[in-house]
User: Fold ATP-dependent 6-phosphofructokinase from Dyadobacter luteus.
Amino acid sequence: MKRIGVFTSGGDAPGMNACIRAVVRGAVYHGIEVYGIRRGYNGMINGEMSKMDSHSVSNIVQRGGTILKSARSKEFMTPEGRKKAYANLMDLGIEGLVAIGGNGTFTGAMIFGNEYGIPTVGAPGTIDNDLYGTDYTIGFDTAVNTALDAIDRIRDTASSHDRIFFIEVMGRDSGYIAVQSGIAGGAELVMVPEVLTPISEVVETLKQGWSRSKSSSIIIVAEGDEEGSAQEVADKIKRQVSEDADIRVTTLGHTQRGGPPSAYDRILASRLGLGALEGLMAGQKNVMAGIINNDLVYTPFEDTIRLPKPINEDLLRMVKILSV
Assistant:
């Protein structure tokens, strides 16, 4: 393999730049030309591709976001869009791809590979940590620490004013951020999509706290929880508790995606970027590079996309036990 392309797609995640850097510098080390594809699959269709070298990725390991930009492409979901993308890759002589992203990114790469035979190896870049085939995804650790910093600050004001705060974190289909930031932040309760937590249980948790003279509480709500958003949950709770209860809601939103990546994410992204490149060189295709038990592994895109990644039940137990 003499020439490859690298791109980021879908939601950005802290550490993507470190991953791009590892792919580019790894390619230079191995004598392979590498082209950066801007704006994901849209850039592939529109020919936004340029050659990269070691200097192209200088001073980016500490930066959040992605220097290659990111986008979701409706056109790539059509056969006509993928045909354009293939033609542009062939014009440049690109023989393989490293795709940095999540479920949608890998779904597109799998379809593209099956249609045109271009080998692709993925690196898992998503703050949700919801991809089967790796213990942690790029950006997750930073997102948890960003959420935790906000929770610590809100805890101070909640305690000062004897308030109940419902804090919404990202996780439309996954409660990993909610659970880990909740444990680290000493939350009284965590609500996640994977486990139904009825409003009655939330009310009972608050009442038990009041019976122990607990004057403030923090409830973490993943955005995809079955009872609704943090605001919707708070509204339901207000109807079932004393009017004297001072209830507030904070939605952390996209702050969790930005900011400098943690040391852990920089190292993880570097391992996965180099692992994806060297997997491509070794003949891997339609797979995602991941780290399981500190070992580099490759998981077929089909499994990564299809198989669930359940939350460790011990973590859910910890939330309940440690909030007593």
In short: The CA atoms of residues 184 and 267 lie 22 Å apart. The first helix runs from residue 16 to 29. The chain has two domains: 3-139+261-306, 143-257. The chain is about 40% helix and 20% strand.
